[in-house]
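user: can you give me the structure for this one chain? tokens are fine.
assistant: on it. calling the predictor now.
[tool input]
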Amino acid sequence: MEPPLVNKGNLQNAIGIPSSGGATVIPTFVIFLREGIEASMIIAILLAYLESIDQRRHFKDIFLGVAAAFVLILAGGIAAYLLISQYSGSRVQTIFETITYLIAATSLTYMTFWMQRHSRTLSKELKQRSDNALDNGTRTGLSLVAFSAVGREGLETMVFTLAIVFASSKQAPTADNSRWLLIGAIAGLVVALGIAFGIYKMGAKFNIGRFFRILGVLLLVFAAGLLSNAVANLQELGWLPFGTQTLWDSSNVLAQSSVGGDLLHSFFGYADHPTVLQGVVWLLFLSISLVVYLRKARSKTVSNSLISSGVKLQKQ
């Protein structure tokens, strides 16, 4: 039995009818905002540390590593998209997009929990890697530190952006769709740089932990939507031939082909007639990941409060 979401055997029909490319703005903005803040924080930590040990002459090595990472990731993303676009509407494209969805969802989840776990030790780890590079006496060592740190963020951003493009109903590389993607990316980076500058100016007054927790919740919701898209593709390919019954049909209320429906689909994985398996996967992943994430965040907050209280008592 063919899943209800698929009518013509390609990803566009598995996701919806083409509509406004503006649906990609918000998810692209959130992704570039989050990754931009983390990348700028990494660069700021490296530069501040070099300045503190009177090694400002190595700033250019950091910038060289960052530039190399951006060039490599941009070239890789464009090449991957152009390559797969040659197989538009084919089984190869569906398989590639399914893999992209799964990698993006896995990376988003891992990245969210990794940052939650390592946010307190990130600065120490970067400083240690910088010391090792300086001890070895090679300028390329610092460039590699910046390249690997920023390159990881860039690679994740490339995968997420490809997933957003594939998840959007309007996938053709038109000027309109490319413009909206660019607007979302630039806006996210600009706001990220503004927040990074604000963090630098405000210091401890800015609650960066709470900010990343909110973004973490949004990204987990986005990851759940990507998993739902992957399930739709896997059912189309015949690799998940169960749970294909229609869970609901809300096309008369909010059609997936509408601007609002396409926007909700790109960010939350909304479908106007999803299959049972899509709904189960979306709900299970989101409920489990959010419970674990928020519980860890709460325990971390309580732990920090206890440590802070202990310090105050010792001072008294």
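assistant: here you go. The chain has one domain: 11-303. The longest helix spans residues 276-315.
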